[in-house]
Every structure is written in C-alpha cells, then in structure tokens.
Amino acid sequence: MQSSIPVALVIFIVSMIAITTEKVHKTSAAILGGMLMVIFGLESQSVAFSNVDWNVIFLLIGMMIITSITKRTGLFQYIAIRLAKLARGEPVAIILMLSVATAVISALLDNVTTVLILVPITFLIAVELNVAPTPFVVALALASNVGGTATLIGDPPNIMIGSAAGLGFSDFLAYTAPVVVVNLVALCAFIFLVFRKSLVVTNERKARILAFDHAKAIEDKPLLVKSLVVLGAVMAAFVLHSRLGLEPSTIALSGAAVLLIASGTRDVEAILGEIEWTTIMFFLGLFMLVGGLVETGIMTQASASVLGATTGHMGATTMLILWASGLLSGILDNIPFVATMIPLIQDMGVTLGASAVRPLWWALSLGACLGGNGTLIGASANVVAVGISRKNGNHISFWDFTKYSAVYTVISLAVSSAYMLIRF
Amino acid sequence: MKLANLLDPRLVLLDRDASTIDEAIVAGVSGFSAQHLHSLKPDEVLARIRERQALGGTVFPTGIAIPHARLAGFDDIVIAVVRPRVPIAVEGQSPVRLVWIVLTSQSASSTYLKVLANLALISKDEAAMSVLLSVESGSRFVEGVESSGYEVEKGLHVSDIMTRDVLSVRDDATLHELTDAMFANKLRYLPVVDSAGALVGEVGILDLIAAGIPDYVYRVGSLKFLDEFEPMEELLKNEDKILVRSIMKPPVRSIAPDSSVLAVAFEMTRSRKRHFPVVEGGRLVGVVSSMDILSKVLRA
Prior knowledge:
The complex is a heterodimer. Helices cover about 75% and strands about 0% of the residues of chain A. Chain A is mostly helical. Chain A has one domain (about 1-50, about 75-215, about 275-424). Chain A starts with a helix and ends with a helix. The model of chain A has no long low-confidence stretch (mean pLDDT about 90). Chain B folds into 2 domains: about 5-155, 3-Layer(aba) Sandwich (Mannitol-specific EII, Chain A), CATH 3.40.930.10; about 170-300, CBS-domain. Chain B has helices at about 20-30, 35, 40-55, 110-125, 125-135, 140-145, 160, 175-185, 205-210, 215-220, 235-240, 245, 260-270, 290-300; strands spanning about 5-15, 60, 65, 70, 80-85, 100-105, 170, 190-195, 200-205, 275-280, 285-290. In chain B, strands 1, 2, 3, 4, 5 and 6 form a 6-stranded mixed β-sheet that branches. A 3-stranded mixed β-sheet of chain B has the order 7-8-9. In chain B, strands 10-11 form a two-stranded antiparallel sheet. In chain B, strand 2 (about 60) and strand 3 (about 65) form a beta hairpin. Chain B is elongated, with a radius of gyration of 24 Å. At the A-B interface, helix 7 of A face helix 10 of B.
C-alpha cells in the first residue's frame, strides 16, 4: 500500500483545495474525490461504501425531517415574539434573550436551520424597534454556533465525532454542555458590553413590540403538540440510548417516520424534498474521500508520529487539538477538517486506549464547533445570517462581522481550555 | 387561401339603410340563400347571431362590426357584408362603416379565426378601407379585398391575436413611473426595454407589490401576529429610488410573432403566466395575453 500513498494524497489534497475554495461546488468536489479513490484502486467500491458513516447520514436525515415538520408549526416565531414581549420591548434584554433562545434551539436543531428561522423574525423585531439589525444578526450567528456545540445533534462535527468515538447524547450533555453554558454566559456578557450603547429605542417603538399578538404566530396547534411530543420522545431516547441499545440514527429516523405519519400530511414528498440533499451527498463523498486516504495506512503513520512527539503530554496534545481546530475552523470548513482528524484520533486510541483519547475528542468538538465563529466564513450559520441581512438592505462586511466574532472566539477557546485543564 | 375567395359578391350588400347593427344583421341574414345556410333556417341563424351579440365585443374601434355565430351542424364559413348608407352610430364606439356577418362551425376553425384577424387588419388599412367604402358593386368590393392581398392560410399565429403598439417601460425608469403607468393605463403587465428599445425584461403588478414587502417578511412566513404593520411603507418611501431594472424578471421565453396560438396557450398554462412579450429580431412587437386567447379565439 505504501506506493499508493502519493496518489491518495494528491487526490485528497486537490479535493480539499476544491472544497475549501469552492471553485467547484464542495459537494461535487467531495463526490468526485471519493470516486477517484475508488477508480485509482485505493479502496474498492464496497470498502468505499462501508467507509460511509451511515449513523451520521441517517441521523442528519432524521433530524432534518423532524425539523422540517416542526418549523411549519410557527413554534420558533412564537418563542421569539414571546421573548421580545417578555423583555417589554427593551432591546438589550431582547438581544440577550434571543441569543440564549438561539443557543438552546440550535442545540436541538441544526445551526443553519436555527439561523434561517430566527434571524428573519429578529430582523423584523429590530426594524420595528428602529435599531440597527447588525448586533442582532451577529449575536444570533455566534449563539447558534455556541449552542450547537452542546449536544450530539447540535452541529455536524459532533454527530461525526459521536458516531466515530462511540460517544452518546448524554456524554455530550455531560462533557460539552457544561462548558457551553459558561461560554453562553460569556457571550451574553460580550454582547452586553459591545452592543449596549447602540441599542437605545423610544417608548413608542417598545409599544409596537408589545402590540404583537404572539398567539397568532402558532400556525398549526395540533401539529405543534405532535411535534413537541415526538421531539421530546426523541430527546429522551437519545439520553437513554445506551440503555435502550439503540443508535442515535435509529432514534432520529424512527421519530421522523412517526412524526411524518402523525402529522397526517399527504405532503411527504414536499417534506422529504426539504432534506438538504447537497449536504447529505457532501458527507457521502467526504467519507469515501477520507476513507481512501485512511486505507493507505497514512493515518496510522501520522498518528504514530504525533504520539511520538507528544508521549506523556496528553494535556499539551489536548490543547494543541483544541486551538488548532479552533483557529483552523475559522478559515476552513470544519466538517472536512473533522472528517480528517477522526481517523487520526481513532488510531491514537488504538495505541493508547479509547478512554485515554476521550479528552482529544472533546477538544476536537469544542475547537471545531466554537472555532466556526472565528470569521464570517468560519461557519455556514454566519454566512446565512449575514446573507439574510444583506438581502434586507443591511450589509455586514467580512470585517464588520469578524471584528466581533474573532474576539469572542478567542474568549470561548480560552474558557474551553480552562475547562479542559480543570476537568481532565 | 385568399380571404377574397371566401367572399361571394351576392353577399356584398352595399349602401343599405340600416340605423342599427341589428338592422344590418337582419339585412345580411336575409341575403343568405338556402345554399349558403345548408339545412339551417334563417330565423335560427338570426337568433344565434343575436345571442352572440348580447355578449358584446363585436364592434371594433376601427369602425367595423363583426357579428357572428358558431352553428352546430354547420361545417362552412359564410360571410356577408353590409355597407350602411350612413355609418351606424354605436354608443361609446366609432361609427360603424362596414358590418361583416360571419357564420361558422361550432368548433371555430383556424381559418375562421384567421378571417376575423384579417377583417380587423383590413379595417386598420386606410388604403384598403377607402376602396371598400367607395366601390359601386359587389364584385368590385371582392376585387378590392383581393387586391389588398390578405391570406387566410391554415394556422393561427400569435401575430393574429396579439396586441400591437404596446406600452413598455424603460429599465432605468423608477418604480414611481412604473406605478403611475400601470395605474393610469390599468395594466397588470409591462414589457421592459432598454434605451435602444430591445426587450430586456418584463414586470407584472405582483412584482411591483412584492417590492413593498421586505425580504424578512417572506422568511418569517406569516404576519398574522402583526396588526400594526404599515402597508407598503417600504415601497412608498423608496419608489423614487428603486429602478424597474431591480424588480423586473428576465423574459421567460420570448414568443415569435409566427408562433402558433396553441404553442402560446400551452406556454401560458404550463408556466401559469398570463402575458408574453412578442419579439421579432430582438425588438418588441407586441404582447399576447390570456385575454387575447379568450376574446380572439374562444369567444371570437
């Protein structure tokens, strides 16, 4: 296999450059890369297919279906309006409450979906308040990435890490969620300090928010009840999954099927059409691409040299992974980065034992998820939030966004470092 | 086939005393022989023409009327023409100088629709009209039609039913100008042209109204919770700043004047679009709308 390493490396590096620069669509690049691994004989087709982590694929699909039905109920708009009214139209209180809500929702749903649902309603609130929408857009984007870090299903890197390392929903609740709570408090403090002065509104504008009729935001009450029941059951099953002996993807896909039937909709085709197939195909291609590289044995060599350099310095390795993944995720797509890091850490686990590399998984999760906040392009949620803002005539440039997000990312990585040092 | 070949000099009734369209119709129908009517009775034919007259829309602004009937069990096209001694005054219309009475089959063949389109065209043709209004005999009248060269070949084309001389709007006009043009002319659709007159887009009334609704509203999906939203605030505030260019759509498909009517009807129903610009050599020559199909094909 040694002779095939250069070929695999060329395919891998060219594909990664294409994915990162988006010269071609990243999904097309990933699929072609994966197929080239097969064509050049680096992995047989059956090996390539078995390198796909179907647990990840079906967990993503299952949650996408549940989300696509739940968002039709108007629940999230209801929450946003309710919070704005609870804040009595006070913009500082609104931005903090919406940030926390975004983080919580993002922990349960995909970050981009959360932003797609909450940024428009927040924009409307900002317009009604007659304040600049930028602080709200920035705060929500940051909060969605922070919240997503908290759970197994909150952000795709966690799904990948969870599946590869055998870490469950409750493991994430026990290990990443506590530090996410601290990071969320830090985010609120940061938002308060940075944006407080620009968020001043008249009494009359506050009254306009109080005139919102939140009850009318609910589009479909029976469906809302069904969605909440299914979502609750799915979460409960996630927590109990080791006792139930069920993988997360089985739980998510079962929940999706039950909700599809319970919703009574004949519109299954439309709901399944809302599954982000480009994302799914991207993952499929990526798994086969990285799989081809792993089959050459290069990852084993790489992990051996990493181990050689860091033997006995587990703490330092943890910090290295946390900060390297944190800083790289600000510029690179964190999903292919995590996909590449997974086999490396898995190999180290083979040598050191699974429990010894546990902190490395958490460092990778925290770094990759929180690191997305590093720049405007670090996370899809940022790009989507700023895109919605631009479409509504409020331009937020790369630096407008990054000057806030980069500072906060350093804060959140520092908080996470302290947490890792204390806990492990 | 020439239009003139469908005319019979015996059915050209010149300088009749008729002070209403109905009197002209009665005169025209009395001119039909049993041979013209096949097995139908003149009373029956008259009744059917009057039924159609009640629906209106047979008087044209160019000073002609085309009362007609589609008859069950009648597989022919028969045309009588009545030239009143004095143009017939019609309320709200120009005086009618020629009354063409057309009988055709129930299914309105394309030849028939073509005849109607040609009669409308002749009425706009000043030279032809001056001949038809001055000739002394039926055969001269038919020759006059023949020399104007109108053909009724098979196949009805977009150019036969489209609206010519359409209003258009420049791509650098403001929404203020667009709104005024739509309001003043009661138009729901305008083609957009550039400074050289080339078609560059199209804009419908819904595109205009959509400009008054911010993007985030679409994304929120429902505004039921919002009772006090200022209607169209955004649009009214900015209508002098936003250009037609920024809200227009590129023309979905330009229709050539010689496209068949069926092709356009298909395109309309498939894309659920009621208007299409008609383009020849890059230049806008007309607009064809679903109303054209209704009034010039289905109820012509």
